[in-house]
Amino acid sequence: QVQLVESGGGLVQAGGSLRLSCAASGLTFGSYAMAWHRQAPGKERELVAAIGSGATTYYADFVKGRFAISRDNTKNTVYLQMNSLKPEDTAVYYCAATKRGPRYDYWGQGTQVTVSS
Question: Which helix (DSSP H) or strand (DSSP E) does residue 5 occupy?
Answer without folding.
Answer: strand 3-7
